[in-house]
Amino acid sequence: MTTALDARPAGDPAAVEAPSGKGRGDENFPVGSWLIRRDLRVHVHAFYRFARHADDIADSPVLAASDKVRRLDRMAAVLDAAAGASDAESPAAAAMRRSLAETGVAAQHCHDVLRAFRQDATKLRYRDWDDLMDYCRYSAAPVGRQLLDLHGESRAAWLPSDALCSALQVLNHLQDCAVDYRSLDRVYVPLADFDRQGLTVAALAEPAASPAFRRVLDGLLDRTDCLIATAGGLPPRVAATGLRRESATIVALAARLARRLRRGDPLARRVKLGPGDFAAAFLVGILARRR
Question: Which of 64, 77, 243, 285 has a CA positioned 20 to 30 A from the CA of residue 194?
Fold first, then answer.
């Protein structure tokens, strides 16, 4: 169904967006699925499109870093309806602005993800786990916070939500560690983890993981498992039935993806979830109860 939030001009030369063709079906987790209250799904999808277009700009292999930052700044200007900004520059940001006006959710979470994507354009290495978690505070946590605020949930749910979103972000980084290095020279695996195993980032160019790099992966997965354990406290804290079930589904998917990465080699091929993983996780979600 087409709504006002979906309206966008096609092929406008003033547009700053650089679509990659990726959509909700390419994600590791459901985005505004049928579990979410029907009247809120369009707003979840608007936020997803906004973040997806910003991410596509940051991940473009052909745009210069300065051009990426400029385009992301224009998305922020459209989001804020700043003087001189045209909705044609970023239809996704214009739709997001209308969504925020309709729901009363503040724009801060949108600005936080834009901050992270600007960082993606200019920062290619991370020192240690804390440095990576600081990035996740802006790249991942705002996604969960946006959904919680959209549903009117308590901020007491932010802590486990942040943990879940950060875990998903790290898992995605591990899935894509080879392609990020080879295509963008971007490495999210902390340099300190390479150092502890006597490796450099060049290990990411190998066709398969060495025993030393396997130890790097397992160490990161150990810390990610701790985030997932914290995230397990999210569903019981969520009052909205649909969001509670979707969050429980996503926690289950995160745990399954972490286990797959324990067994798989992301340098050899992309480790991903299968249909059985999604079916089992949805069952967990349907059975989720509030504390």
Answer: 64
244: CATH:
1.10.600.10
Domain count of the fold of the chain: 2
Structure tokens at 5: 């939030």
Domain boundary among the residues 112, 146, 174 is at: 112
pTM score of the predicted model:
0.90
The yes-or-no verdict on residue 47 having pLDDT over 90 is yes
Contact between residue 27 and residue 55 where contact means Cβ atoms under 8 Å apart:
no
Average pLDDT score over residue span 150-166: 97
- How many Å apart are CA 148 and CA 154, to the nearest integer? 8
Residues 153 and 39 placed together within one structural domain of the fold: no
> Quick one: which of 164, 187, 14 has its CA closest to 86?
14
Full domain range(s) for residue 211: 123-291
**Residue reference for tokens 């092929």:** 11
The answer for residues whose C-beta is within 8 angstroms of residue 29's C-beta and 6 or more apart is: 168, 249, 250, 253, 254
Residue 44 within any structural domain of the chain: yes
Q: Which amino acid is at 100?
A: L
Decide: 264 and 271 in contact? Cβ < 8 Å.
yes
